[in-house]
Amino acid sequence: MKINPFANDFGAEITDVDLKDPSSEITERIYQAFLDHQMLVIRDQDLNPLEQVAFTERYGTLEWQENVKYAHPDHDKVLILSNEIRPDGTAVGVVDAGDFWHSDSSHHEEPVKVTVLMSVRTPSKGGATDFCDMYAVYNALPEATKQKISGRYGIHHASKALNPRVKISENRPGAKEFYAKQAQERPTVRQPLVRTHDETGRQALYVSPRFTLGIEDMDDAEAQPLLDELFSYITDEARKYHYRHYYRTGDLVLWDNRCIVHRATGGYARDDIRRLHRTTVVGQRAFYKA
Ligand SMILES: [Fe+2]
């Protein structure tokens, strides 16, 4: 197995390994590379949904799947992300999933630690995922901003209907109703603005334009401009802390949601099919330790 780190050690490509039934030594080396580089692109894999589940389970308990409608028929903890529409007009998977910057499931009390995507079909154009290094963003913040946010909590919620910073996709059948229902039924969740990684001990900014709606015990007049300042590092056109991944079929990509935010970039035609299979490992509660 070869590990080729990207620039600044944020992200790495792994080649010459088969993840169908890897040894425990390989599993551990991959996890260490994941902690060191935050995201990994493991080339030339061909895992079916059950094999992907078996691989993902080596790193912890799989997260429950709330979008059961788009689960894979072979395993209910594999979520299909795809723009494919059946002849009857129903979607095969989640269309336009993750189109705004976020950390997976930060709206859960125990958010996702690892996300695994298996690239099954690649469109001829577009379909990339952007990643942003939130250790680097935290380090880049002015001292005064770090002091302002340390020990404070962001308010997170899953529903796009509650968030003026995002739009609901027109391409996803039933999305408006889905988010309206979610806004009614789901509680808000508080997460530390600065998150101490439970395994590396490093500090990362833990907010996103997609899920962070406000700051606990702070008026919006003060909180919203502060969030805009924090989000500007993520949405910065200079892309100083970023990596954009264009998938090849057979890429297995995994990343650490404790120190990365990501988004789908779209840019493919509706009939140019993209398909990814997603599995996620639930982590522990986020915390901040000075
Ligand atoms: Fe995501």
TrEMBL record:
Pfam families the UniProt entry points to: TauD
Keyword Iron: yes
Keywords: Dioxygenase, Iron, Metal-binding, Oxidoreductase
TauD/TfdA-like domain: residues covered: 3-280
InterPro entries: TauD-like_sf (IPR042098), TauD/TfdA-like (IPR003819), TfdA_dioxygenase (IPR051178)
Keyword Ribonucleoprotein on entry: no
GO molecular function: 2-oxoglutarate-dependent dioxygenase activity; metal ion binding
UniProt similarity note: Belongs to the TfdA dioxygenase family.
Protein's name according to its UniProt entry: Taurine catabolism dioxygenase TauD/TfdA
